[in-house]
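User: structure tokens for this one?
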Amino acid sequence: MAEQLTAGTRAGRGLAWAGFAAYFLVPLAASIYFTFSLNGRVSVTPYTGLFSADGFAQSLQMSVGMGLLTVAILLALLLPAMIAIQLSLPRLRGLVETLCTLPLVIPPISFVAGIIALQNKLADDPYSSLFQFMNRLQQPGFPLLLVFSYVILALPFAYRALDAGLRMLALRTLVDAARGLGASWPTVLIRVIMPNLRTGILNATILTFALVLGEFTVANLLGFTPFPVWIVNSGGGHGQQSTAASILSLLLTWGALLILSVVGDRRSKAARSAS
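Assistant:
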């Protein structure tokens, strides 16, 4: 009886994995086939033409740069705060968790409407310092306003990833041992906590980077042209080219995940060998 249950469980898992694979891989394979098929023959023109397309390099560079900066800001804000809460301020945990997950219940349209309303309010006094500051945040080449918007949008995902990692650590024991050996707080954070929190940091980084590379609504309504907006705008008369750009965006996210995984594994192995 137990063997039959085990066989049934394995078959069910196999069917589930096959269903998931078909759900994700079939549309991807169809998209790749579409980009390589041109007038009944195989062609790489949609991909080679990307690099000479107007606005491609600028929009991709903007999105990658904003993604990296968004990740840096999120980690710099969340890591020290979450560590301090877990070590010294557990009563604030519920409040911080609520604030960090709040963007999930706020539609992006409402979020953008609030930003536009603030812009219109500040425009009533164009010589004010706040209006000038807002203008500096909206440079078309690298809009920091969009970066700060992405920080807010990615906050719930990064928080959950880091929180899951911290829950798996004996954080107080690690900190007390490191501090007892004379390590400073920056050393504790960089050389003790972060290596042990590698998986959580990796997950938060990938989720945030993927959000930046795929977010369209906020950027489009605010009038900026990062990579997702460029893909949509270029798809009117160049369907294969825009599909190729979408696949490239997906490959960039997977490539970033692979690179971070390899780097993290090497550092983890180096730390274990050193100890």
